[in-house]
């Protein structure tokens, strides 16, 4: 089956400097994406079954097309990750997805 279901289990990484903020003038729907999103990159060896375009994001809609949706918790995540990486100009954080 195509691009359905949760993000496949495996090893990924995120780069906090890639945090994207949805401004009032952007066309992306705030209800679906929330105010922030962060790209999830696939580590070599992780089987994604041809899928991609994974993000960590907020938003009002339950579920997603394979992303990690933190809903209202996204604002706390953004605050915490910005505080934790303030001293580092560039950093890469490993992310393990398992069920």
UniProtKB/TrEMBL annotation:
**What processes in GO biological process is this protein linked to?**
cell wall organization; peptidoglycan biosynthetic process; regulation of cell shape
InterPro entries according to UniProt:
LD_TPept_cat_dom, Tlde1_dom, Transpep_catalytic_dom
GO terms for MF: carboxypeptidase activity; transferase activity
Q: Which CDD domains match?
A: YkuD_like
Instruction: Enumerate the UniProt keywords alphabetically.
Output: Cell shape, Cell wall biogenesis/degradation, Peptidoglycan synthesis, Transferase
The annotated pathway is: Cell wall biogenesis; peptidoglycan biosynthesis
Superkingdom assignment: Bacteria
Residue ranges constituting the Tlde1 domain according to the UniProt record: 3-72
Q: Which family does it belong to?
A: Belongs to the YkuD family.
Name of the featured protein: DUF2778 domain-containing protein
**Record organism:** Burkholderia ubonensis subsp. mesacidophila
């Amino acid at each position: 089956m195509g691009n359905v279901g949760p993000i496949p289990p495996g090893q990924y990484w995120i780069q906090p400097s890639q945090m994207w903020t949805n401004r009032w003038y952007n066309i992306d729907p705030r209800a679906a994406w929330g105010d922030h999103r962060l790209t999830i990159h696939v580590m070599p060896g992780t089987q994604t079954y041809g899928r991609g375009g994974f993000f960590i994001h907020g938003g009002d809609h339950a579920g997603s097309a394979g992303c990690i949706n933190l809903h209202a918790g996204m604002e706390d995540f953004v605050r915490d990750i910005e505080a934790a990486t303030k001293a580092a100009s560039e950093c890469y954080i490993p992310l393990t997805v398992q069920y």
